Structures are given as C-alpha cells and as structure tokens.
C-alpha cells in the first residue's frame, strides 16, 4: 500500500498500528479527539506475552519491560467467614514463550512509549483533531475537525481505532450486536500496605461476586469488583495508605458484524468490547493493529475481516464465559465457580489451557 493510511484514535491500538506501518514503510497520519495532555488514569493495566512479541520489531518491548512489573502467577482465593484463603495457584513460569509473565504497566505509559517511538520515526499524533464524518464506500472520504475547523481528506485507507463509541462505525451503519451486564463494576487504584504476593494476580471468590487485585508499581495496587464497597472487601492485612483513582462502570460484550467496509477497517474497542477479566482488551487491539499492518504491506487487506472477526469473536465469547463464572452471575454458575473451579485449576492440562488463554498464546488468540 503506497498511499497514506489515516488512523483515527491514538490509544494503544492506533499507536501500535501507526508504529508497525511506519516501520514497514507505509505513510500514516494519526488523529485523536483528546487533548494534548497525558493520560493519568491507569485504565487497562496488563500487556501479555503475545503483545510483547508483536511489539518487539518496533523496538519498544525492552522499554515496556523495564518500566513494567512482572506478574508470574495467578492466585485463586476463597472468602469464607471473614477470611481469605488461598485455594489454588497457576504459575506462568513454564509457559512455552520467552516472555513467561504478564507485564503490569498502566495504559498511559504504554501509550507514551509507543508515541515516543513514533516521534522518533517522524510521526506526530494530531491531538485535538477528530474524525467527525465519513463517506464511502470505496476509498474513504473522511471529515476531520480540528483547531482550525473542518477539512475533508481522502486517505487510501482508514483504520478506525476510535473507541467504543466509534464515529466510523456509526457512520457506516454497522451493527454492534451483544449485550450489557446490568451490574456496576467498581475499580480503584490504591497505595497499599499488604502481605499479598506482589508477583501474583489475585482473584477472590466471594458470595457477592469476586474481587481482583494486582500490583502495578511501587506499593500501587489495582482492585476491581462487582461489590459496591471496594474498601470494605479488601483481604485482611491490606491497609490503604492512599487512593490514587476510582471509577465505576458497566461492561458490554459486543463484536461488530463487519470489520471492514470498502477501505475502512475497524480495530480495538471500535470492533469489540468485553469485560476486563482476562486482560485482553488492550492486547486484542494491539493484535488487530499488527495484523492490519502486515496485511496492508502485503497487499492482502481484503482478508482483514475474515482474519480478525473469527479470532476476536472467539476471545469475546471466552471472556464472557469467564465473567459469568467469576461473578457467579446466576445460581447455575456459583457451584461451578466455588466447587469445581479450584479443583479443575489444580489439573496440569487445565492449568496449561488457562495460562495460554490468559496470556494470549492460545490458538484462538493468535494473530497469524
């Protein structure tokens, strides 16, 4: 592809696509509606081995690893009678991969590293400029609205990485089937004093849902739950020194019907949504971006829909099932979660499957 690719959205998906395309010799233009201020909230928090591998040719993996905190195992706990008891451990150390860990690093830092690498290649993100309109089919006619007003541009291709409320997806009239969970999810980042293992992700099964905790910096921990009062359900021995950030949100599980229309392609949250369980959101977008770049430089973009929808839909379905089990969404799932899950995770074949799914290394999560 010789013409310019316009990328709408400068989150991890858009930046990863821009970096891969630039490295492969394809000109790009990246716009983002956000202000030119850095992202401070941690939002997505884990980069998996697949993403570290995919980003490695662009030269950013080393810096991400230098800044991130390595999670080498998962701990499954059960809460009972006011106490939290460890019931199972799933180690990552024997993953058949040179990055046998999850990397805990805030999304804002991932974006900063990718954007700095793009700047080294002469590409500057145009912040404060948004995709406000789109016409097609065929070669896209995109309207950009920025500090100096609106202008129509005609890129050879448009990669819409413009988020859950994608302007491109709406302009194309694409269905985004799925559903939204009714429960509110609570999320907070704390500075904690705790005796929880700092190199483990912790899942606590509770009668009222679940609690997830993971360290991502010096004394900094992410906590997430469907419980209304996060502070009150932290495991015994956790002492809150400070609260860094707090949010409440609802989750959806959705996959767009068509990942491409003419020369417009959807990636990341514009194409698929799912719960944070499984830590696949940012990583799945990076996979979309890498596939797009390789297909573009190989003249095979007609394959993009077929290649990505199959993979992304499978991952969303897996995470939907995981979410139902972890939250005990119905009486049907609670016995499975409380009685069978700890026993199953003690079996080596199940541990291998769980490790590969969680780290993006299962066949259904592959990018090639």
Automatic annotation (TrEMBL):
Classification via Gene3D superfamilies: FAD/NAD(P)-binding domain
Cofactor requirement: FAD
InterPro entries cross-referenced by the UniProt entry: FAD-bd (IPR002938), FAD/NAD-bd_sf (IPR036188), RIFMO-like (IPR050641)
All copies of domain FAD-binding, residue ranges: 5-318
Name of the molecule in the record: FAD-dependent oxidoreductase
Record keyword Flavoprotein present: yes
Domain of life assignment: Bacteria
Keyword terms, alphabetized: FAD, Flavoprotein
């Amino acid at each position: 592809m010789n013409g310019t690719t316009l990328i709408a959205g400068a989150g991890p998906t858009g930046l990863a696509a821009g970096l891969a395309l630039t490295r492969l010799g394809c000109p790009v233009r990246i716009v983002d509606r956000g202000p030119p201020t850095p992202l401070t909230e941690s939002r997505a928090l884990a980069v998996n081995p697949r993403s570290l591998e995919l980003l490695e040719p662009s030269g950013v993996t080393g810096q991400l690893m230098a800044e991130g905190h390595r999670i080498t195992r998962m701990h499954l706990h059960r809460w009972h009678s006011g106490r939290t008891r460890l019931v199972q451990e799933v180690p990552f150390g024997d993953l058949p991969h040179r990055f046998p860990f999850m990397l805990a690093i805030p999304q804002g830092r991932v974006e900063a590293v990718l954007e700095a690498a793009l700047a080294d290649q002469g590409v500057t993100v145009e912040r404060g400029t948004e995709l406000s309109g789109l016409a097609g089919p065929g070669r896209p006619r995109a309207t950009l609205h920025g500090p100096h007003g609106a202008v129509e541009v005609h890129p050879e291709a448009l990669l819409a990485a413009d988020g859950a409320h994608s302007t491109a997806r709406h302009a194309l009239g694409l269905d985004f089937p799925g559903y939204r969970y009714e429960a509110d999810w609570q999320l907070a980042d704390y500075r904690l004093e705790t005796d929880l293992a700092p190199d483990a992700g912790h899942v606590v099964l509770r009668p009222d849902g679940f609690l997830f905790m993971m360290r991502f910096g010096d004394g900094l921990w992410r906590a997430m739950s469907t419980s209304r009062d996060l502070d009150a359900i932290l495991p015994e021995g956790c002492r809150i020194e400070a609260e860094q950030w707090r949010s409440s949100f609802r989750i959806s599980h959705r996959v767009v019907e068509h990942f491409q229309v003419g020369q417009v392609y959807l990636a990341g949250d514009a194409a698929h949504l799912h719960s944070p369980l499984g830590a696949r959101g940012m990583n799945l977008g990076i996979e979309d971006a890498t596939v797009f770049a390789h297909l573009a430089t190989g003249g095979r973009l007609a394959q993009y829909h077929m290649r990505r929808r199959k993979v992304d839909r499978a991952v969303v379905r897996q995470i939907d099932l995981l979410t139902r089990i972890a939250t005990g969404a119905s009486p049907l799932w609670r016995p499975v979660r409380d009685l069978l899950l700890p026993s199953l995770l003690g079996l080596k074949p199940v541990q291998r499957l769980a490790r590969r799914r969680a780290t993006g290394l299962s066949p259904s999560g592959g990018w090639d």
